[in-house]
Amino acid sequence: MADVQTVQVKAFGETYDIIIQPGILNAPAVLAKYLAPWRGKRCAIVADACTGPLFGERALAALAKAGIQGQLFTVPAGEASKSHGQLLWLYDCFLDMSLTRTDLVMALGGGVVGDLAGYAAASYQRGVTLVQVPTTLLAQVDSSVGGKVAVNLPRGKNLVGAFWQPSLVIADPDTLDTLDPREFGAGLGEVIKYGCIADAALFERFESLHNRQALRPELPGIIARCCRIKAGYVARDPLDHGVRMELNFGHTLGHALENALGYGEVLHGEAVCVGMVAAARWGEALGITPPGTANRIAALLAKYDLPIAAPPSVSTDTLLSVMALDKKAAGHTVRLILLEDIGRATVRSVERDTLAELMLTVGATFL
What we know:
alpha/beta; Rossmann fold; Dehydroquinate synthase-like, alpha domain; seven-stranded mixed beta sheet; three-stranded antiparallel beta sheet; 12 strands; about 20% strand; globular
């Protein structure tokens, strides 16, 4: 097996590990060593229709070797599963297997599974230990780390949720070989986001590579690098009231785009790509972001076959109405994450009227 990389995350006075090791899901005995502290417990594995058949039996085998009684529960694949209907179904599953507060929930899948299972773990009996096993690039570098878990409402994304830190995160980069190009690209967009907000050298490294194939050998190191960046944000701001909001670069428009098109029509990472270009253009128009930054980001995204423009069918009015419900909205203002330069982000509050003007002027060049 390949060498293991470990990233520690500190939040609320506690520490947990992110284990990054290619091939670990194919080595139940190795995985079992990390699960051994919960020997004798029960574990509800939550997967989706894609990850359950691919990885469910391997996870169950690892749990058995660790002396943990496991049971697999599968939800439909896709953003629509982040719903109260699926949440209530999971509660029933937990009750049927007599899961208690001393047991475990394992999220085995991408961001949707991690958010849904994580919120179920946070709220069932006021909290059950959570283990995240992310199987997509987006989940390995972002959604599995930091404890933000949620489900969607019809009028907005992640509007019902909690902060519930996992006790362990296990990332196997080999699972990325199962992703189709679009899913892989969605995660790549989030990786590029880290370069935009906090690591100019990472951004420049992507500029120096020629295509997706060229970066494949570097993925374990890239994943670890992104996790370390996010761990730093989480340690400084575990409840997302300040500097951690920088991680939402590209998300203000991105979340609105997901909602306007209907969840599942555009992938989260794809929407964030469009949102990053938009935020860079807004920052340039406000005199905060250096001129040419948006074009530089757009060129990099296009180089890796990632989207930089929303479909023309989406109206500005629709996007604005959804952005008004964003969690970062406050009164008559919206907090935007903008760039002071590549590798340095800032959080700025703007009036909704100002945002509307930006959407109608600057926004017209890319929507």
